[in-house]
Amino acid sequence: MKVLLAHPGTQHAFQLARQLARQGVLSSFWTGLALREEAWWVRWLTASVMIRERLGNRLLSGVPGHLLRLRPWRELSALWALRQGGAALEVFLRRNQAFQASIPSSALRAVDVVIGFDTSSWILAERCRDLGKRFILDQSIAHPLWKKQVFEAVAARYPDWRESLTPPLPEMLAHEAKEHDLAASIVVASQFTQRSLVAHGVPPERVVCNPYGVDLAAFYPRAQPEGERPFRFLFLGTLTARKGVPLLLDVWRRLATRRAELWLVGPASPAVRRLVPDLPGLKVLGKRPHRDLPELIRACDVLVFPSYFEGFGLVVLEAMACGVPVIASDATVGPDIITDGCDGWLMTAGDATRLQSAMEDAMSNPVKTFEMGRLARQRATAYTWEAYGARWQTLLETT
Hints:
Elements: E1 3-7, H1 13-22, E2 26-31, E3 35-36, H2 40-45, H3 49-55, E4 59-60, E5 68-70, H4 72-83, H5 88-102, H6 105-109, E6 113-117, H7 122-131, E7 134-138, H8 144-157, H9 170-182, E8 185-188, H10 191-199, E9 207-209, E10 231-236, H11 245-255, E11 260-265, H12 270-275, E12 282-286, H13 293-298, E13 302-305, H14 314-321, E14 326-329, H15 334-337, E15 344-347, H16 352-364, H17 366-380, H18 385-398
Parallel strand pairs: 1-2, 1-6, 2-5, 3-4, 6-7, 7-8, 8-9, 10-11, 10-13, 11-12, 13-14, 14-15
Helix pairs in contact: 1-18, 4-5, 7-9, 11-16, 14-17
Protein name: Glycosyltransferase family 4 protein
InterPro entries: Glycosyltransferase_grp1
Organism: Chloracidobacterium validum
């Protein structure tokens, strides 16, 4: 079997490319910008810690160079447009359109299966249909119409945070509907995403759930509870209303505790940063490189992830692998991998009362919380990138 994989950006596409190459089925990986870590000049370039941090999400290993098909100028042009203040959704729409058109028909004819990603595959899917090629869509986040509904509700609840909620473009809604119609199979990473697709008319038999993985060697637990220090909660992700940050801040204000800390780690726009109040124990640490995340997670006791809308929420799995239990909403992978009250806590998205009670429960018994983290690590060991790749291979052979 020969597979063409196409993604103009990053997300988890690099991991999928690596796994398909390892199984010997990857014919070509088309992407915007990727730097092979095995190349001598990449090793030289990334010897600088600062440069490595800047390019961290573009580093790719495990994929032979002859399988890579890059479109760097289109990606650099998009990044430049964003830096100049361009609207992100419009910039990415133009990039994704040009990227799909740049893949020659000869490359599509040479393979058995084409795998594309949501918001960047509507042209690709049409071309596969016309060529009689099987097209599989990797759906990285829940259905866009569900997103639109959620964003409207969250904006009404937190009007000051409205700017952090960017609804999908109308033309993108039409493009994604085309992707869903033309895909032979749609692969999702969580049951939340699966439910959202089925609720909006996608036949359930065409949706396959394949959860992501985690690097267990990098994300490992600390040996034992730390000594005297405040109990620490961690939020990890972009500081937006979609991620539940204003809800979390409301709950933190109500807890009014001086014996615990809440660390907010992730990028924030200047407008959002002004909305974050000065509260006891609250620390805004900003964006950190991915290589620093395991140490940051291990320095905390509980990850809090009350998101309103996700496709998976990889930080949930990364925290569990670090032996840190998670308070996760039902709009994430949480219900798929967490047993409530055993190796973490579950909440309905937007439920401030449940979020507060879970945080109080965690603080009230740190020994139990640490034990819950140990069980969370055990659960996480089933979710490796190798297992993710093996499930993809089975999917390719049987669907």
